[in-house]
Amino acid sequence: MAGSGGTPCASCKLLRRRCTAECVFAPYFPAEEAQRFAMVHRVFGASNVSKMLQEVPAAQRADAVSSLVYEANARVRDPVYGCVAAISFLQQQVSHLQMQLALAHAETSALQLQLQDERQQHILVQNAHHQLMLQEACLKQESMWT
Ligand SMILES: [Zn+2]
Asked: What confidence score (pLDDT) does residue 53 get?
C-alpha cells in the first residue's frame, strides 16, 4: 500500500514526489494504472483533482474519480465538446425514440379502431346471414303448407 515504503501511487510517481499515507490519490490511482492518472492530470491538473477530491466525502471519492476519468477520456477524444457530445447524442436518441414510440402508439390505436370496425362488420354479416337462413326456413315451411 502507498506510504508504507511500497511503490508510490500513479500520481506521486508521475509528479515525482513521496507517496505518504495521507496521499489523497493513492486509493484511487494505484501505480499499475498510471495511464488513468496521466489522463486526468492532463485534462484537469493534479492540484485541481486533489482539491476536488478533498471537497468530496470519502465515501463518494471513488465515484468522483471514475467520473473524472470518464470526463477526461471524453475530453481527450473530443476536445471541444467532451462529455457534452455523448450527452447530446444520447438526448437526440431519446427524443428520436420518444417520437417512434408516439408513432407506434398512434398506429396501435388506429389498428384497434380498425379491429373494432371489422368486428362490428362481422357481426352485421353474421346477423344478415342468420336472417337469410330464417327467411329460407320460413319459405320452406310455407311451401310445405301450400
Ligand atoms: Zn500518492
From this structure: 95
Residue 15 placed within a domain: yes
- If you search the block for the grid coordinates 500500500, which residue do you land on? 1
Q: What is the pLDDT of residue 136?
A: 93
Is residue 130, in this structure, part of any structural domain at all?
Answer: no
How many angstroms is it from 63 CA to the middle of ligand 1?
18
Residue 78 CA to ligand 1 centre (angstroms) = 29
85 occurs within a structural domain: no
What is the CA(56)–ligand 1 centre distance, in A? 18
Amino acid at 117: D
* Nearest CA among 62, 86, 90, 63 for reference residue 74: 86
**Residue position matching grid coordinates 499499475:** 32
> Which structural domain range is residue 22 located in?
1-77
* Total of domains in the chain: 1
Q: How far is the CA of 44 from the centre of ligand 1 (A)?
A: 17
Whole-number Å distance, alpha carbon 71 to ligand 1 midpoint, is 21
